[in-house]
Design a protein that fits this description.
The complex is a heterodimer.
Chain A: H1 3-25, H2 27-31, E1 32-36, E2 42-46, H3 48-69, H4 89-110, H5 112-142, H6 150-168, H7 172-194, H8 199-219, H9 221-224, E3 237-238, E4 241-242, H10 250-253, H11 260-287, H12 289-299, H13 301-306, H14 311-337, H15 347-360, H16 365-384, H17 388-392, H18 401-416, H19 434-438
Antiparallel strand pairs in A: 1-2, 3-4
Chain B: H1 2-32, H2 39-58, H3 64-91, H4 101-121, E1 126-127, E2 135-140, E3 145-149, H5 150-172, H6 174-184, H7 186-191, H8 196-222, E4 224-225, H9 231-244, H10 249-269, H11 275-289
Antiparallel strand pairs in B: 1-4, 2-3
Keywords (chain A): Cell membrane, Membrane, Transmembrane, Transmembrane helix
Membrane topology (chain A): Multi-pass membrane protein
Protein name (chain A): High-affinity branched-chain amino acid ABC transporter permease LivM
């Protein structure tokens, strides 16, 4: 116990330094806020309580951390007890059953009108992000190609539906694969010249291409209607039956009362089916030679080339397949939103999807789904936290903190658990011990 | 001709700012081989710090020369500390991690910084009344004046002076020698007694200080800044670094000037809606066809 006072004093000293650092970092940016006054001239408003709260927080955090790190520890011989992985195939089926039951249960319990929000934001929206995450997971997680411009493919799908549906008069079902194909074609066109590049350069070029796509969408008024976007496209139909009140609609045909939630429930099942398709495709592909080549490429590109793999083609397939699912998600996004505009496909969107993949653990299907639920669900929950306005004043908008927290989570994840929330992913192919192999 | 001359002057001014930011990218890439994605947002943050300091000190009623120097110095110091902390928190632990880990962490940091400023300062444009409005009339056509403003002279001069000082640091001082050593072979440098962590931290500090100068000059020239302003200038400055040859300091400045000129001339003669497209296309084309840039060394892949 003789080490205790010195530890305390050390913690105190380090915490004081931390508080000082926070004080300098936050000096103008936290302590003052520049806002235009009545004459539209910027004036400063001091926020000393906030500033000192942050300094105190810095102090407290560092103090606790130092004490925690310096606590007396007994050395434990940690034997890596290799637990045999428990296979629980019924868990996935249970999950699917729960997902199928979810919108029906919510509607039955809450009634059609209050259920709208639950089916839409917490159902369709989250599933769309799960689909996007699983799509990007093929590119980033399996093949190890960092794609910072995923929103561009998403945009291609959405605009393809919004432009082609009124033009061709084709139904949603026939356009869905077209959207996916167009996005995949884009993926190949963009991917082909840049796949020779090293990982980080490749990431930056995909970002540049995505920004070019977005700027063309903004400025090519004749086709895309600029910032306003497109909204005159047909909505989803139940195999030809529109979701409208009146005798020709879906509800009249099946003898139901008209409710807006029926359309969303149908959309929910469509998105669910396609997301599960993406999942099955990537799980099956992982066992094929192509999927193994992806994973090998992720681990060591030079070794792959030395073994005679055609790296350019392998990368291109991963890129195109990821883009394909983004295109499909884009089509569904257009149907959900009813309007397609460039502001939905900014770099923030790409960063959110990337964060889902990174937080979930690159390559893990469960992890990605979990991360999508966490990120989208948490940002929706932030929107509900309006009571905090009473604590922090009317300027406080909790929804603004969404991307801030996403960014922090990405940094923290890379530092502490670089393999993601679900980090125990089995290698798809494993060498057997000699004895077993000999049998 | 007059229009061309005016755009040339504007382009060089803009290019100096890009060049200053590009040095931050190129140095960090040279020393730890990482695209410091958050550097553009550090630049934006520094512009905000300069804005706040300017408003704060203006009320003290100092003469404008002293005011400028104080604001510049203050924002350089604070931004340098920011980048020091960012390196410590977000990148230092990742040295031995897989290849893309620092880039992903930097993207997270960039998202955090731009949203941090949005949250603390609001999402709107912040504009200050124009400073240093005097201009020199160079030539005069009956409809078009070609002017060179005091601001533009100041920007180009400050950039040139800083570059000279910086060049001296890298070429002649022990710090510069340590930096060049780490750039060539960090492990060997560590064996020979160079404190690699400290050198990398100092690189981040210097990069941030130069970005802070760029932020102050940007504020001076355009008089307006908002919290999303880090992204596009950041990518353009990165383009400048790549165009000049990543890892090369004169290349970064040359690339910055080239990007600034291309952007203004493109905006003048083709379409100002698509002027960002020009810069982004250059980035893609350079990386695909000329990955070592104008002045860079060809990149050898080590097994």
């Amino acid at each position: 116990m003789s080490a205790q006072p010195s530890l305390l004093s050390r913690a105190f000293r380090e915490a004081s330094v931390a508080a000082l650092v926070v004080a300098v970092l936050g000096f103008p940016i936290l302590a003052y806020r520049a806002a235009p006054d009545f004459n539209n001239v910027l004036t400063l408003r001091a926020r000393w309580p906030l500033y000192f709260t942050f300094c105190a927080l810095g102090f407290a955090l560092r103090f606790v951390l130092t004490l925690w790190n310096g606590r007396p520890r007994t050395l434990k011989a940690e034997v890596a007890a290799a637990k045999p992985a428990v296979k629980r195939p019924w868990l996935a089926w249970l999950g699917v059953a729960a997902l199928i039951a979810y919108p029906l249960a919510v509607t039955a319990l809450l009634g059609p009108r209050p259920a709208l929000k639950w089916v839409d934001t917490f159902g369709v929206q989250i599933l769309l992000y799960v689909l996007l995450g699983w799509g990007l997971n093929i590119t980033v997680g399996l093949a190890g190609l960092l794609d910072l411009g995923y929103a561009a493919f998403y945009a291609v799908g959405a605009y393809a539906y919004a432009l082609l549906a009124p033009l061709t008069g084709l139904s949603f079902w026939s356009l869905l694969p077209v959207c996916g194909m167009l996005a995949a074609l884009w993926g190949v066109c963009i991917g082909f010249p840049i796949l020779r590049l090293r990982g980080d350069y490749l990431a930056i070029v995909t970002l540049a291409f995505a920004e070019i796509v977005r700027m063309v969408l903004i400025n090519w008024d004749v086709v895309t209607h600029g910032e306003q976007g497109l909204f005159n496209f047909p909505h989803i139909t139940f195999f030809g039956l529109p979701f409208i009140p009146g005798p020709r609609g879906f509800d009249a045909h099946f003898g139901l009362h008209f409710a807006a939630v029926h359309k969303l429930i149908f959309l929910y099942f469509v998105v669910l089916a396609l997301a599960l398709l993406a999942n099955v495709v990537s799980i099956r592909l992982r066992r094929l030679p192509l999927g193994r080549a992806w994973e090998a490429l992720r681990e060591d590109e030079i070794a792959c080339r030395a073994l005679g793999l055609d790296t350019a083609n392998i990368k291109l397939t991963a890129f195109a397949l990821g883009a394909f699912f983004a295109g499909i998600a884009g089509c569904l996004f257009a149907l959900r939103q009813g309007v397609v505009s460039p502001s939905s496909f900014t770099f923030n969107e790409s960063a959110t999807i990337l964060a889902i993949v990174v937080l979930g653990g690159r390559g893990s299907q469960w992890g990605v789904a979990l991360a999508a639920v966490l990120i989208v669900g948490a940002s929706e929950l932030l929107r509900q936290l309006n009571f905090l306005k009473m604590v922090f004043g009317p300027d406080f908008d909790p929804a603004q903190y969404r991307m801030l927290l996403v960014g922090l989570a990405m940094v923290a994840m890379m530092n502490f658990r670089p393999r993601g929330i679900v980090s125990a992913r089995e290698p798809t192919i494993k060498l057997l011990p000699v004895a077993e192999a000999a049998e | 001709m007059e229009v061309f001359l005016q755009q040339l002057i504007n382009g060089v001014t803009l290019g100096s700012i890009y060049g200053l930011i590009a040095i931050g990218y190129t140095m960090v890439y040279g020393i730890i081989g990482m695209v410091n994605f958050a550097h553009g947002d550090v630049f934006m943050l520094s512009a905000f710090i300069a804005l706040l300091l300017l408003l704060l000190m203006k009320s003290a009623g100092l003469p404008s020369g002293v005011l400028f120097i104080l604001v510049l110095f203050g924002s350089m110091c604070i931004t340098a500390l920011w980048n020091f902390v960012i390196e410590r928190v977000a990148y230092r632990r990742l040295r031995g991690s897989f290849r893309l880990a620092p880039l992903i962490s930097a993207i997270g940091m960039s998202t955090f910084l731009s949203n941090f400023v949005t949250v603390t300062q609001g999402p709107n444009n912040k504009s200050i009344p124009p400073l240093l409005e005097k201009v020199i009339l160079l030539t005069h056509d009956n409809s078009y004046d070609v002017t060179l403003s005091y601001k533009q002279i100041l920007i180009v001069t400050v950039t040139a002076v800083l570059l000279a000082a910086f060049w001296f640091v890298v070429q002649k001082t022990p710090l510069g020698r340590a930096q060049r050593a780490c750039e060539q072979d960090a492990k060997m440098a560590a064996l020979l007694g160079v404190d690699v962590d400290r050198t990398i931290a100092l690189t981040f500090v210097i990069g941030a200080a130069l970005a802070a100068v760029a932020g102050f000059l940007f504020l001076l020239q355009y008089g307006v800044v908002k919290s999303t302003d880090g992204f596009v200038p950041g990518v353009k400055a990165f383009t400048a670094a790549v165009l000049g040859g990543i890892g090369s300091l004169p290349g970064a400045v040359l690339g910055g000037l080239a990007i600034g000129l291309i952007e203004t001339l493109w905006g003048q003669y083709f379409s100002s809606d698509y002027k960002d497209v020009a810069a982004f296309s250059i980035l893609a084309v350079t990386l695909i066809f000329m990955p070592s840039g104008l002045l860079g060394r060809p990149d050898v892949e080590k097994v």
